[in-house]
Write a structure and sequence with these properties.
The structure holds 2 protein chains of 2 kinds. By secondary structure, chain A is an alpha/beta fold. Chain A folds into 3 domains: about 40 residues, no CATH class; about 200 residues, P-loop containing nucleotide triphosphate hydrolases (Rossmann fold, 3-Layer(aba) Sandwich), CATH 3.40.50; about 60 residues, no CATH class. Chain B is an alpha/beta fold. In chain B, helix 1 crosses helix 5 and helix 2 runs parallel beside helix 3. Classes of the chains: A alpha/beta, B alpha/beta.
Chain lengths: ~325, ~130
């Protein structure tokens, strides 16, 4: 039996299989996923922590340390680790669990690997929904590890309550740390591999770039650590705790609801547009044919769809 | 719906010879599957728990130490115990011909010995998926 009520009930009683199944459903966008998420949304309670940074910065190792930290205070911990999918085959090698092996048989730790499945921005299209499932199942915190990112994958800051940007020495000069994008989204900037050469320079680049922030904006903490040998971790935990304490629950919940709605509106926009294409052109392929023979431009298609929608709304309004 | 075939590749036991496991993981990736690779020296418990959390369709385990007659059935037993016997198991590594029937009886749908072309594993998975639907 896999009815929605059944799944929701089993998630409530902590069934690992049911949680895993629900994650697959939201990831695959199966027909009952909206109903599942609708039931689970208000059950979310805990914090979400995002970890982002370039490939090889030590994100998975840091997640492993964070799991240990939260498990020592008896929390159950959820992890969503996103790795890139191939743009050609759609396949993915999901290898983040390798660094988290020490928690492999801890029943209070739930680790789920996800392929980005063509989604840009450092996450997959369903990461927000998967976070909802784990949070509603009682995992607190839910830690979200992005794919190894470059300069502009900033989606995580929109999803997580707190975002850690992990940097390592040796990836570029001070101009890199002045660029817009990823450098702006860290609530805490973690300088990992602090035992390596170049750490002083990295810290001075990062701190100098923060000098340019507008006076009224909050300056992120900059914390040096070595995730592999444990140095500096206590400072990082203190920094995270301080930041968490500053966020009110009401604020977090509203923010999460608004951001989720934004995503849903975008998805709905695509669905409505497809329907309008059907009405206006008898399907997307017909519109594509017209464009191919240069009878119409994509801009005109877009405008025609909007006009069609407006006519429909007017018609309905006059009833 | 964007359904992907999900496969977990794990290496139980104490040998660290992970080339075969990585080779297969890479081949399945290139065949468009999502492959969770757990790394070497995993206990059967760790493999079974990961398979359930990851909600995979298949678990493939590789072993070159000779302990397959103990460790392979153990993974199958644990999945059954955790109500996940619908996950299809396959194995690979240095496994003598005469041990294969016993492993099949323990729940393994296929055992791939050294020299197997990766395409054969891909075909096996695709065929099993078709049969299941």
């Amino acid at each position: 039996m896999t009815s929605t009520t059944d799944i929701i009930q089993k998630i409530g009683s902590g069934s690992i299989r049911a949680i895993a199944r629900a994650l697959s459903k939201v990831e695959n966008g199966s027909s009952d996923s909206t109903e599942i998420l609708d039931k689970l949304f208000s059950r979310q309670q805990g914090f979400t922590i995002g970890i982002t940074g370039p490939p090889g910065a030590g994100k998975s190792t840091l997640v492993d340390r964070m799991i240990t930290r939260y498990r020592s205070s008896a929390n159950s911990v959820g992890v969503i680790a996103v790795d890139p999918s191939s743009p050609f085959t759609g396949g993915a090698l999901l290898g983040d669990r390798i660094r988290m092996q020490s928690h492999a048989t801890d029943s209070k730790v739930f680790i789920r690997s996800m392929g980005s499945r063509g989604h840009l921005g450092g996450l997959s299209g369903a990461t927000r929904d998967a976070t909802c499932v784990l949070s509603a199942a009682g995992y607190n915190p839910v830690i979200i590890e992005t794919v190894g990112v470059g300069q502009a994958e900033v989606e995580i800051a929109d999803l997580a309550d707190i975002t850690l940007l992990v940097l390592v020495p040796g990836l570029g000069d001070d101009v890199q740390s002045m660029k817009a994008g990823i450098m702006e989204i860290g609530d805490i900037i973690v300088l990992n591999k602090a035992d390596r050469n170049g750490i002083e320079q990295l810290e001075s680049y990062v701190k100098a770039s923060l000098e340019y922030l507008p006076a009224e904006s909050r300056k992120p903490d900059v914390v040096r650590i070595s995730a592999a040998n444990g140095d500096g971790l206590q400072d990082l935990w203190d920094s995270i705790d301080k930041l968490m304490a500053s966020k009110t629950e009401e604020n977090r919940i509203t923010r999460s609801a608004v951001r989720t709605l934004n995503e849903i509106l975008q998805e709905n926009g695509v669905l409505f547009s497809e329907k309008l294409l059907d009405l206006e052109y008898g399907g997307r392929e017909n519109a594509e044919k017209l464009m191919l023979t240069r009878q119409i431009s994509p801009y005109a298609v877009g405008r025609n769809l909007l006009e069609r929608a407006e006519r429909m709304f007017k018609h309905n309004g006059s009833k | 719906m964007d359904r992907k075939i999900r496969v977990l590749i794990g290496k139980p036991g104490l040998d660290g010879h992970d080339r075969g496991a990585k080779y297969i993981a890479r081949a399945l990736r290139d065949a468009g599957m999502e492959v969770v690779y757990t790394g070497i020296r995993q206990t059967p418990e760790a493999i079974a728990d990961a398979a359930i959390q990851e909600d995979v369709d298949f678990v493939g385990i590789s072993l070159l130490s000779g302990a397959h007659n103990h460790l392979f059935p153990e993974v199958a037993r644990l999945l059954k115990e955790k109500d996940a016997s619908d996950i299809i198991l396959f194995g690979g590594g240095v496994i003598p011909e005469e041990d294969i029937p016993g492993l099949e009886e323990a729940g393994y749908a296929a055992i791939f010995t050294p020299g197997t072309p990766a395409a054969q594993v891909v075909d096996f998975i695709n065929l099993q998926m078709e049969n299941r639907q």
